[in-house]
Specification:
- The protein has 13 helices and twelve strands.
- Helix 12 links the parallel strand 10 and strand 11.
- The chain is of the alpha/beta class.
- The longest helix is centred in the middle third of the chain and has 22 residues.
- A five-stranded parallel sheet has the order 4-3-5-6-7, sandwiched between helices. The protein has a five-stranded parallel sheet with strand order 9-8-10-11-12, sandwiched between helices.
- Bound molecules: fructose -6-phosphate (F6R).
- Fructose -6-phosphate (F6R) binds next to helix 4 and helix 11.
- Fructose -6-phosphate binds next to helix 4 and helix 11.
Length: 365
């Protein structure tokens, strides 16, 4: 049921503190400062011998794979490649013997993801699923995997499944990291950061009113740019996809620094740029990109850290989110972007739970 919410999408956005908690329940091991998973079905030897990880999926699940790439490479130092399932299934790339493949999927029924996993499994690679729907086709086809435990996602636009996927990938990075170079102390710190996430997401939800004002201001735009770097480059892609699919506004996501290689030509007074610019390694560089957009007369919306002192000087609208470690930021910064697409879609009279031309699970290729 809708539980008092107007739409499933909004209800599911608001469920995220709880769905993230459920993704972590029973999986954080303080004793050994690592994560534990019941269903990976990997022996310690198999785990140790993994030389490459392939993450594959479609749409929003492919975006969480991009977050996973950054997480696993940084925290576990295992090379990762991210593949669109629809491309992987026909591309036939060479894969080393000790390659571990993860199919990421909310529904567990996406035809391309299923086919990509069957193909890699047939070639003898260990093939696991990160999946929400229990006993779905992909969950059954895989050698093992991790369930999201996010509860049913009814809105066609994926919201809580995405943040849970990112959370599971962070725990996998911790798990792989702790079998390699990551220290006990490092593992401990990561666990503490993960435990702070539900409260941070709760806090990010309090931007709702303010996001609605931003939505009113820009709901008639026909083009939007979403820009972010590093861990928030996938956030830019995801924000743009949410806006496209439920508001039917053309939006593009880019790594912020790529802007000057072409997309900046789109900037004018009617094209808002949304920058995801929390504190972190590339903060100042992204601020410089914002200056470039401002100098060309483009309106700027910034999703920034709660205590950023300089942001108002450049951005027209600032949405402030709590600070978390850089590698967990995408789980927090995506929340106002989900809300923005929701409010813009409502203002434009779109059916947010059932956008035109889309289905909840794509069971044809
Ligand atoms: C976007 C969206 C789609 C799905 C994609 C994969 O909001 O929902 O892009 O993410 O169709 O679906 P799953 O995760 O069920 O494999």
């Amino acid at each position: 049921s809708l539980n008092g919410f107007d739409h499933y999408m909004l209800k599911e956005i608001y469920e995220q503190p709880e769905s993230i908690r459920n993704a972590m329940r029973g999986r954080l091991d303080d004793q050994d400062a690592t994560a534990v998973f019941g269903g990976l079905n990997l022996t310690p030897q198999q785990l140790r011998s993994v030389e490459r990880i392939v993450l594959t999926g479609c749409g929003t699940s492919w975006h969480s794979a991009l977050v996973g790439e950054y997480l696993i490479e940084e925290l576990a130092r295992i090379p990762v490649s991210v593949e669109y399932a629809s491309e992987l299934r026909y591309r036939n790339p060479p894969m080393e013997n000790n390659t571990l493949v993860f199919g990421i999927t909310q529904s567990g029924e996406t035809a391309d993801t299923l086919a990509a996993l069957r193909e890699t499994k047939r070639k003898g690679h260990r093939t696991l699923a990160i999946c929400n729907v229990v006993a779905s086709s992909i969950a059954q086809a895989a050698d093992g995997g991790v369930y999201l435990h996010a509860g049913p996602e009814i809105g066609v636009a994926s919201t809580k499944a995405y943040t849970s996927q990112c959370c599971v990938l962070a725990m996998l990075a911790l798990y792989f990291g702790r079998t390699r170079h990551m220290s006990y102390e490092g593992g401990k710190r990561l666990i503490e950061e993960l435990r702070r996430l539900p409260a941070a997401v709760q806090q990010a939800l309090t931007t709702d009113e303010q996001v609605r004002d931003v939505a009113k201001k820009y709901c008639n735009a026909t083009n939007f740019l979403y820009l972010g770097r590093q861990y928030n480059f996938p956030t830019a892609l995801e924000g743009a996809l949410k806006l496209k699919e439920i508001s039917y506004i053309h939006a593009e996501g880019y790594p912020a620094a790529e802007m000057k290689h072409g997309p900046i030509a789109l900037v004018d007074k009617d094209t808002p740029s949304l920058f995801i610019v929390p504190r972190g390694t590339t903060h100042d560089k992204v601020m410089a990109n914002m200056e470039e957009v401002k100098a060309r007369g483009g309106p700027i919306i910034a999703v920034a850290s709660h205590d950023d002192p300089h942001i108002e000087a450049i951005a027209d609208d600032v949405i402030r989110v709590p600070s978390v470690q850089e590698f967990l930021q995408p789980i927090v910064t995506v929340v106002p972007l989900q809300l923005l697409s929701y409010h813009i879609a409502l203002l434009r009279g779109c059916d947010v739970d059932k956008p035109r031309n889309l289905a909840k699970s794509v069971t044809v290729e």
